[in-house]
Amino acid sequence: MAEKVLLVDDEKDFVEGLAERMKLRGMNVNFCVNPQEALNKVEEESYDAIILDLQMPGVDGIEVLKHIKKSRPEIQVILLSGHATVERGIEAMKLGAMDFIEKPADINILTDKIKKAQARKMILVEEKTKEKVESIISHRGW
């Protein structure tokens, strides 16, 4: 099954080029260039991974990460930054980011991380489904 990915970066040329390269690798890729559009897409659709730029005008990647993890905790987020600091990386990981990568990201490394994100999301969804089934069974008294 193709990985479903959302790319979020305010640099339109960068995000379009990265999306094209990922599509060539068989991924189902959507992209947007502003944080609010990203949050709207997350509410409307499910993704295996979101590749999120740390620094964007208005709302930065950390704020977008917080919103995503609050509303859709199963979605795996990988932050990208051209201006990474150790402190920002640690903050992102504490907030639930799967990984933190400096730009320009090697496409093979990024592809590998996206495949791992898809697997991690599937495990989380299966665990949540199992909990729901067990809850239903225990409350029904079968």
| Biggest sheet strand line-up | 2-1-3-4-5
**For the terminal residues, how far apart are their CA atoms?**
35 Å
Kindly state the mean pLDDT as a whole number?
92
What's the tally of helices?
A: 5
Helical fraction: 40-55%
* Structure class: alpha/beta
Task: Tell me what portion of residues adopts beta-strand conformation.
Answer: 15-25%
Largest sheet: 5 strands, parallel
Supply Rg. 16 Å
Total DSSP E strands: 5
Provide structural commentary:
A 5-stranded parallel β-sheet has the order 2-1-3-4-5, sandwiched between helices. The protein starts with a strand and ends with a helix. It is an alpha/beta fold and 142 residues long. Helix 1 links the parallel strand 1 and strand 2 (28-32). The chain is globular. The chain has helices at 12-24, 35-44, 61-71, 86-94, 107-140, and strands at 4-8, 28-32, 49-53, 76-81, 99-102. Helix 2 packs parallel to helix 3 (61-71).
Question: Would you spell out the secondary-structure blueprint of this structure?
Answer:
Layout (H helix, E strand, L loop, with lengths): L3 E5 L3 H13 L3 E5 L2 H10 L4 E5 L7 H11 L4 E6 L4 H9 L4 E4 L4 H34 L2
Parallel strand pairs: 1-2, 1-3, 3-4, 4-5
Helix pairs in contact: 2-3
